[in-house]
């Protein structure tokens, strides 16, 4: 499979550097920027993205606290995903050329929304695979002082903090994950890609998760951002692929008052549709990339 180029993009205003994978002809402008889900990394999506590199130039960053990115991960006082959105916006500022298609899965999709709302001139379209978008009342509730800490009690946070973080080898990690939990049904190639950049050397021996359980839990617990406000601020075409069996995305089909947003519920899909139904997500990405830039 097409091996990505590994880039390091310095973002001094954000406090460090972002690791970015790139596929496609480096002589053409960047066409697509794709952001991964919480706990994963850019290489996890190689099976999804690499086939598009025959026609498009693609960049996929490791978000803060994931993979090889060195941006700081301060948990104390953190309330939302504004840091991820600002990081992606800063990455967009480093890209020369015409506006790009911005895309992502789960948290990466929501972070893409937040980034696009602050850099509308740099984004010509969005493709979001089951982005995390709570109901409008829930988003409002999470801004109230008495309720804003409610997400910290969710099972996602509790389970993330219990997650095993160290392994003797990659083979041991592969055996522990294969066919279990969130990884049920994943092709081995995708799981192996996740582990390639998802594990780093442990100073005490063996390997440990690049995204610590504490940071993964912080992402689940920090729900003070407002994706609905971001969607209202945008005018570019936004296509949401919604999981049929999922609880992350609460954008209705069709969404009221958002004429630029289309929602497609993918039959038989789960929250992990980029891993389990990559052809559907790849088709949506290609369709958006082929839409002429209105600018």
Summarize the structure.
This protein is α/β, with parallel strands linked by helices and 295 residues long.
Structure description:
There is one protein chain. With 295 residues, the chain is of the alpha/beta class. The protein has a single domain (5-147, 224-289), classed as Alpha/Beta hydrolase fold, catalytic domain (Rossmann fold, 3-Layer(aba) Sandwich), CATH 3.40.50. The protein has 11 helices and 11 strands. It has helices at 46-49, 82-93, 107-118, 136-141, 155-161, 170-177, 188-198, 213-221, 227-233, 273-276, 278-289; strands at 5-11, 16-23, 32-35, 58-61, 100-105, 123-129, 166-167, 199-201, 207-209, 238-245, 261-270. The chain has an 8-stranded mixed sheet, with helices on both faces. A 3-stranded antiparallel sheet has the order 7-9-8. α2 (82-93) packs across α3 (107-118). The radius of gyration is 18 Å and the shape is globular. The protein starts with a strand and ends in a 6-residue tail after the last helix.
Task: Please supply descriptive tags for the structure shown above.
single chain, 295 residues, Rossmann fold, eight-stranded mixed beta sheet, three-stranded antiparallel beta sheet, globular
What is the element layout, followed by pairings?
Elements: E1 5-11, E2 16-23, E3 32-35, H1 46-49, E4 58-61, H2 82-93, E5 100-105, H3 107-118, E6 123-129, H4 136-141, H5 155-161, E7 166-167, H6 170-177, H7 188-198, E8 199-201, E9 207-209, H8 213-221, H9 227-233, E10 238-245, E11 261-270, H10 273-276, H11 278-289
Parallel strand pairs: 3-4, 3-5, 5-6, 6-10, 10-11
Antiparallel strand pairs: 1-2, 2-4, 7-9, 8-9
Helix pairs in contact: 2-3, 3-9, 5-8, 6-7
